[in-house]
Design a protein that fits this description.
Helix content: 25-40%
CATH topology of the largest domain: Rossmann fold
Distance between the termini: 60 Å
Number of strands: 11
Number of domains: 2
Shape: globular
Order of helices and strands: EEEHEHEHEHEEEEHEHH
Radius of gyration: 23 Å
Strand order of the largest sheet: 9-8-7-10-6-1-4-5-11
Number of helices: 7
CATH architecture of the largest domain: 3-Layer(aba) Sandwich
Largest sheet: 9 strands, mixed
Length: 252
């Protein structure tokens, strides 16, 4: 089973984000970047499939050289090969075009990805890749069983679970609950440092035509400090609270 896992490098959710002077992107100075958490579920699932059915796991990302840090983390977890697509992408569609270009060359049986990235929360790339490749897709998967010909996936829907059968090759996106990602071992980390990361230069004519551009980025307004009512009995406090909610907070 030849599996490609899509990996994105994202800011750590514990990092305090600032807007860059350009006003269209975040200030990357001092930001800690990690593997997208949903992609970790995809990496773990790919490794488990390989352990069960044999084959190879290739992790793939798109972007600048710094994104190779995420690939090495995946290699340390147990992936076999890593590929970075060298392309300047600006929206989910251009990202998917660059990925599809590389996937056609790699010719896997299965593409796994996280259901969304925690930085932009758009959740489009997996489905767009499937559409560009004209492959079956199953999204937000919480259970996956594969054979050499196809598979059965479970995905949570409102009020129940949907069971989907599909043929290979296919694209599957992972939801939390699919598995528990393993930690990278020390031997795995040392091996990952020595592994070569293959680079693929995507066809610029199909990647650099974004349909969406970021024109401005700003942080949400700072929250005002709360008020604590003191020095009054319960009846007076309740009356004052109603007044504040009506006249200042405009909630009632």
């Amino acid at each position: 089973m030849n599996i490609v896992v899509l990996v994105k490098q994202v800011p750590d959710t514990a990092t305090r984000i600032k807007v860059a002077p350009s006003g269209t992107e975040i200030d990357r100075q001092g930001v800690n970047f990690v593997v997208n958490p949903y992609d970790e579920f995809a990496i773990e699932e790919a490794i488990r499939i390989k352990e069960k059915l044999g084959g190879q796991v290739t992790v793939l990302t798109v972007g600048e050289q710094k994104t190779e840090e995420a690939l090495r983390t995946a290699l340390a977890m147990g992936a076999d090969e890593a590929v970075r697509v060298s392309a300047e992408v600006q929206d989910p569609l251009t990202t998917a075009r660059a990925i599809a270009f590389a996937v056609r060359e790699l010719a896997p049986d299965l593409v796994l990805a996280g259901k969304q990235a925690v930085d932009d929360d758009e959740g489009q790339v997996g489905s767009l890749v499937a559409a560009l490749l004209d492959w079956p897709q199953v999204t937000v998967v919480t259970k996956l069983e594969l054979t050499a010909e196809g598979g059965v996936a479970e995905r949570e829907i409102e009020g129940g679970v949907e069971v989907v059968e599909f043929t290979l090759p296919a694209v599957v996106t992972a939801q939390k609950g699919l598995n528990e990602p393993r930690y990278a071992s020390l031997p795995g980390i040392m091996k990952a440092k020595r592994k070569e990361i293959r680079q693929i230069a995507a066809d610029q004519s199909v990647t650099l035509d974004p349909m969406v551009r970021t024109t401005a980025l700003e942080l949400p307004p700072a929250r005002t400090a709360g008020k604590i009512l003191t020095g009054m009995d319960a009846q007076a406090a309740a009356k004052e609270l109603v007044r504040l909610l009506h006249e200042e907070a405009k909630l009632i």
